Amino acid sequence: MKNHTHYFFALGLINLYGLIYVNEIVQTWFCFVFSFIFAGISLLPNLIDNYTGADFQFGGVQLLQHRFSRRYRHPLTHSIWTLGYFLPLDYLSGVFKDPFFNIIVLSLKISWMSHILLDSLNPEGIPLGRKPIFSNHLSKHYQWSSNRINNARSFKIARIPFDSLKANKNTSRLGLFLLARNFTDLILNHSHIISEVIK
After folding, report:
1. How does pLDDT run across 28-70, given as a tens digit for each residue?
2. Angle of helix 165-189 relative to helix 3-21, nearest 10 degrees?
């Protein structure tokens, strides 16, 4: 999906999390306001690849060109195993047990996972690799391809083209709808508090 689609979809998912799981008033508003910043994490996988110049033999990793975006994707940014990057934050959230820190950690994870989820809707899917995950050279055993010839494995949910106008538009609209739904809920449920603050 395109970058703006990744951003709006992540924005919607973070607000859905705030709508369903965050109950305290201040924490709910915190989640809503800062979701605009946290959603930017969903752009990191593409930005890292673009600015590090991932190419066919980048870092010894055999990559194949994404057939729609014409760009290369590095497995250290575009595989399902990258969710392990957040394990240190999970540990710290268990140590500090601060609700605001927990909201930040979960929002960042949701934003990153939303990128992986949307990429799994493309025909190439998310690369899972050709060899066992626990190897001496982890990053060298991935390929951005679902071609059976090279025995690469990938996880994909659908075959939606990267540049599909309808898919990008509807996914962005879904994210904005969830944002508006959370904002409406905040206004309706906390209107008496807002009126007291205004007075």
Report:
1. 999 999 999 999 999 998 888 777 655 544 443 444 455 555 5
2. 30
Phi, psi of 153 (to 5 degrees): -110, 145
Report the candidate in 85, 89, 102 with the shortest Cα–Cα distance to residue 44: 85
The residue among 6, 8, 7 whose CA lies nearest residue 175 is 8
Q: What is the pLDDT of residues 71-81, one digit of tens each?
A: 556 667 777 77
Q: How many helices (H) and strands (E) does the chain have?
A: 7, 2
Q: For the whole model, what pTM was predicted?
A: 0.79
For the purposes of burial, counting CB atoms within 10 Å of the CB of 194, is it exposed (0-12), middle (13-18) or buried (19 or more)? exposed
Residues 6+ apart with CB under 8 A from 59: 74, 76, 139
Q: How many residues does the chain have?
A: 199
